């Protein structure tokens, strides 16, 4: 849930969105504290764990700024591949691919299954949502985690196909009944992966998003059961961060967003229903607006240009959170979303608004803002109109 703060005319480092909640410092501060002699006295007062955390945040920030987040000509625009991927991600995938090819060529069925099991673990590990423990520790943005989720999913399908081919090359010795069982469970898992890939294609996912989500869940369960039965027990370790994150979103977050934090009037966590306006516009567009500064509590919804937020409308579905770009300017008095009716959920929203009598017919839950524009729009040498 977003930490909302009162507006301030001057910048306060304590309110910086980059401030780490565990160390109490921003990345730039941690960098100064670890190298500047004038902060050595402060460092001596810190515990060993606090010093380690400061060093980790500083190192993570420097690596992200100087290596991992640096764009690569052509590759970043076309494939979203950055310098860090050339250093770490792509070499890792090439090593896994080479290992699978070698083991397959040697007719080693068991070892050829290890690389796809490892990439499957990474696929599950990258399904976590925003504010998860994994992303906090690694510093990977949610948008980047989603990119890696897709990338490792593609790699898993390719490596699994090579692993399946090793069964055809292997000798016929061993337990025939066990081989048949392994072949059947492997085929089920592989076909489920193929269907997940087809349903995740942009045109299908955007057009039938609700169907995509439900089938993704069903096929995910099929893959897990079939893969574990096949012998890929190691992949279960990737489910743990996803499972913890899922419980947080379904149990804790939904409750805190609908009722607010107990005893806190300044963090109700829900857009005040009497301050929201929802209107149906021409072109199948639904406009949602609410004050940037909440009138009853004074809390401010702080966001930057190009960011998005997840919206949930319990009357439609209390479990579905959909991302939408904030269409208003950060300096406007009203926060605005323009939502086009394209999929099942957005069509239900449009219908509910058209049939409603009042301008704010239902509660709206909000989680955000998230994301950041890929260029510095505040710097005229970097971003300009021609």
TrEMBL record:
Residues 1-11, 22-36 have a biased composition (Polar residues). It is found in: Membrane. The keyword Transmembrane helix applies. It comes from Phytophthora palmivora. This is Ferric reductase. One of its GO terms (cellular component) is plasma membrane. GO terms for molecular function: oxidoreductase activity. The chain crosses the membrane at residues 86-105, 117-139, 151-169, 181-199, 211-228. Gene3D superfamilies: Translation factors (2.40.30.10). It is a multi-pass membrane protein.
């Amino acid at each position: 849930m977003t930490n909302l703060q009162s507006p301030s005319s001057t910048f306060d480092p304590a309110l910086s969105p980059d401030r780490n909640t565990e160390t109490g410092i921003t990345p730039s501060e941690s960098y100064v504290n670890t190298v500047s002699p004038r902060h050595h006295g402060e460092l001596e007062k810190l515990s060993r764990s606090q010093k380690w955390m400061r060093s980790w945040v500083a190192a993570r920030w420097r690596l992200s700024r100087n290596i991992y987040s640096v764009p690569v000509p052509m590759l970043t625009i076309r494939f979203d591949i950055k310098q860090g991927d050339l250093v770490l991600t792509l070499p890792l995938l090439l090593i896994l691919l080479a290992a699978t090819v070698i083991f397959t060529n040697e007719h080693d069925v068991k070892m050829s299954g290890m690389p796809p099991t490892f990439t499957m673990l990474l696929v599950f590990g990258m399904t976590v949502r925003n504010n998860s423990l994994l992303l906090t520790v690694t510093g990977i943005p949610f948008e980047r985690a989603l990119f890696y989720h897709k990338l490792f999913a593609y790699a898993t399908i390719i490596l699994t196909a090579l692993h399946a081919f090793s069964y055809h090359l292997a000798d016929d010795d061993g337990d025939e009944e066990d081989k048949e069982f392994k072949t059947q469970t492997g085929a089920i898992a592989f076909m489920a992966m193929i269907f997940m890939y087809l349903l995740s294609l942009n045109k299908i996912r955007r057009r039938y998003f609700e169907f995509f989500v439900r089938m993704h869940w069903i096929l995910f369960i099929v893959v897990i059961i079939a893969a574990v039965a096949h012998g890929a027990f190691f992949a279960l370790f990737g489910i743990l961060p996803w499972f913890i994150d899922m419980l947080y979103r379904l149990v804790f977050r939904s409750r805190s967003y609908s009722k607010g934090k107990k005893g806190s009037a300044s963090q109700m966590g829900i857009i005040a229903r009497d301050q929201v306006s929802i209107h149906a516009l021409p072109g199948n567009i639904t406009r949602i607006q609410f004050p940037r500064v909440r009138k009853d509590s004074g809390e401010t919804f702080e966001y930057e240009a190009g960011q998005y937020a997840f919206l949930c409308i319990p009357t439609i579905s209390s479990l579905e959170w959909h991302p939408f770009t904030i269409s208003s300017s950060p300096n406007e008095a009203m926060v605005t979303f323009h939502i086009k009716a394209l999929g099942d959920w957005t069509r239900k929203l449009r219908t509910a608004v058209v049939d409603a009598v009042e301008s704010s017919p239902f509660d709206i839950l909000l989680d955000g803002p998230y994301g950041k524009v890929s260029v510095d729009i505040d710097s005229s040498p970097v971003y300009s109109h021609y």
